[in-house]
Amino acid sequence: MKDLPDSQEIAALMDEIGRRARAASAELAFAAPEAKRRALEVAAAEVRAREGEIIAANEKDMAFGRDKGLSAAMMDRLMLDAGRIEGIAKGLEAVAAQDDPVGAVLTEWDMASGLHIQRVRTPLGVIGVIYESRPNVTADAGALCLKSGNAVILRGGSESFYSSGVLAECLKAGLRAAELPEDAVQLVPTRDREAVRQLLTMTEYVDVIVPRGGKGLVGLVQREARVPVFAHLEGICHVYLDASADAEKALKVTLNAKTRRTGICGSAECLLIHRDVLDTIGQGVVRALIDAGVELRGDAELQKIEGVVPATEEDFGREFLDMIIAARVVDDIDAAIAHIRRYGSNHTDSIIAEDDAAAQRFFQRLDSAILMRNASTQLADGGEFGMGAEIGIATGKMHARGPVGAEQLTSFKYLVTGDGTVRA
Amino acid sequence: MKDLPDSQEIAALMDEIGRRARAASAELAFAAPEAKRRALEVAAAEVRAREGEIIAANEKDMAFGRDKGLSAAMMDRLMLDAGRIEGIAKGLEAVAAQDDPVGAVLTEWDMASGLHIQRVRTPLGVIGVIYESRPNVTADAGALCLKSGNAVILRGGSESFYSSGVLAECLKAGLRAAELPEDAVQLVPTRDREAVRQLLTMTEYVDVIVPRGGKGLVGLVQREARVPVFAHLEGICHVYLDASADAEKALKVTLNAKTRRTGICGSAECLLIHRDVLDTIGQGVVRALIDAGVELRGDAELQKIEGVVPATEEDFGREFLDMIIAARVVDDIDAAIAHIRRYGSNHTDSIIAEDDAAAQRFFQRLDSAILMRNASTQLADGGEFGMGAEIGIATGKMHARGPVGAEQLTSFKYLVTGDGTVRA
């Protein structure tokens, strides 16, 4: 890579980007909903119009990726073709069509003093998005930030440098067409990692960081950020088969939770089976998983079932992101809850139970961002929740939790109207 | 002070407190509303029963304060008498009587897939409260944290050490009576400042810090905390008299905003006057302020009015907390907005205007936690907002903003119910 200025130059560059983003955010905060919608629609048209340019840029990225020896999976994530580019354009249009969250009155009431109080949505300000190889994040994340009235600083992966560059240009073209400040979307123009370090500590300019990527990236961001972070480090999702589980639901949900797609954060990584249903439903589910090609790493009791591989302590609380699942027999629901508290990651956990009291206990005593009953953990997704596009799933408890869509990228303010009202 | 163990001992002590708080919070999170109410009611009864003990402890604190040479104002904040103790007991009962925020369904909806999705309030976890001389904060903050299902670690001022100790014991007595974990309320048992440093960096155990005190304390906490902070550094509240201001409202509101109580964060520190009403409403308001004993530090134009003292650049953006106000003439509403953006602290700002468009512009283009129209900035208070007791007023944009009551000390989780529902 030739673009390696020294860290002082990077600091000056990032400071300038931050300053511009802050200035743009002040204007974008009260932009008309129609203007933001138009910016996104024009950006979508621009993406379609520049298909050839995007593919040419992507070819440069793919060549860089090959030189770097990226895995086939990584190369696939990086790759853009006509179909994926159309998907990006459609994604921009979908966000354009969403309701504008800014200015919505969340609640309002009157006081005896004569005050009328409204709580109104307002943007957060400036959002930093740090991501890895998927260039589409440039468009998706940029669009959500814009919709929610926030300025965004995008820091893509070094592999998607050129593809992301063209996509960011499409967003800027949209902003210009809508007469909105172009600095509302900025892509960090260097691959230097020092830029990430700067971005994480720019408390004056950046209100929140959203990392999109693997555990390595998210862990780094969580450790080093001096600004709030919306993220999940891992998705260690559990499925617990209660004594009251329905056999068919248990089978259907567990198979889907593990095997539909193993590489997403909502895929199940651990199966807990109530002792009372071990020889009935449990056997059936274990069999079905193994037959589906899953490596099932079980505790001593489960090892009695043919095909079960011994689990080590390290297999619990582990995110396999693969056709592997850890499994354990528990004596009762409280043991399942204790296991999830200890090994879970507060992402998504599901109970398979017909007994309302059991489900209630699971819902009350666990505090994962998403708790499910008789439903697959793979449903943990903004789209499946009807919340529209999401910038990610957060497991923290502050501000944003679960699927983070445009609404969760906002804050609020109180608007108070009196009539010469004073305090006694 | 004799209690000065070394920093390793303090670290071990705080670690133990954090561990206990975390364990208590897991239980308190699903405590029955009746149990929490009972704990607070018993605590109130306990405060009344221990009046003599509280006064004796407070006398030790007052002696310590005198030795330390505290100002009369500080000594007054520290002092507890029968009336104030009854006020503390009533405050506990008021929080007991509030609705329990935990478990409330914030919103719920159904998806075509068959999922039923609920967004339900859940406590934040562990809250650290760091405060100065007022011992009543021990009871007030402790009660709000308990009501919202959070464990609390209280770190009172060294001056209120003994008074706070007895008040914390009253809360613990309430917890015991309600069979709730006593560790849900812990008072740091040392005056050593190292304990504060520890508390601010215990990311594993503490979810949020609430500092209650002057700019020195809040600034320290904001600089050094590695956990989120709900606070306002300063309340630099502005009153802007628009060209469309009503004379009577302008006079009434400005006088109240400045003079009702000068020492609170909602008191006005700066007056902005639209040029068009300078010689009419402006003159009258300036006169009335001066007649009320306010030192008005004005710009060159205002200095033409008798009794106006020249303002320096440092007087703008300054929190006087005294019978002093800075004042400036502005050419139009945008100049007022620009002034507030530059010098304000995002706490509370008020426009006096009959023109709806002007008020709308002020509300849209500023992003203070609280914006008011024709109302006194002194109304910026949880009680005046009908939100019940507050733990403070926050100016940040993440999570909590404006008056922070029991509701804002909560997060949420998604409870998702299916019927064997899987993802396609």
Give me a quick take on this structure:
Chains A, B: Pfam families: Aldedh (PF00171). Two copies of one chain form a homodimer. Chain A is an alpha/beta fold and 424 residues long.
CATH-derived topology of the largest domain in chain A: Aldehyde Dehydrogenase, Chain A, domain 1
DSSP summary, beta strand count of chain A? 16
State the end-to-end distance of chain A: 67 Å
Radius of gyration of chain A: 24 Å
Chain oligomer state: homodimer
**Helical proportion of chain A, percent range:** 40-55%
Uncertain parts of chain A: none
Q: Domains counted in the coordinates of chain A: how many?
A: 2
Beta-strand portion of chain A reads 15-25%
Strand order across the largest sheet of chain A: 10-9-11-8-7-12-13
CATH class category name of the largest domain in chain A: Alpha Beta
Overall SS class of chain A: alpha/beta
Shape verdict of chain A: globular
Major sheet description of chain A: 7 strands, parallel
Chain-averaged pLDDT of chain A: 95
How would you name the CATH homologous superfamily of the largest domain in chain A? Aldehyde Dehydrogenase, Chain A, domain 1
**Count of alpha and pi helical runs of chain A:** 13
Function (chains A, B): Catalyzes the NADPH-dependent reduction of L-glutamate 5-phosphate into L-glutamate 5-semialdehyde and phosphate. The product spontaneously undergoes cyclization to form 1-pyrroline-5-carboxylate.
Organism (chains A, B): [Roseibacterium] beibuensis
Main location (chains A, B): cytoplasm
Subcellular location (chains A, B): Cytoplasm
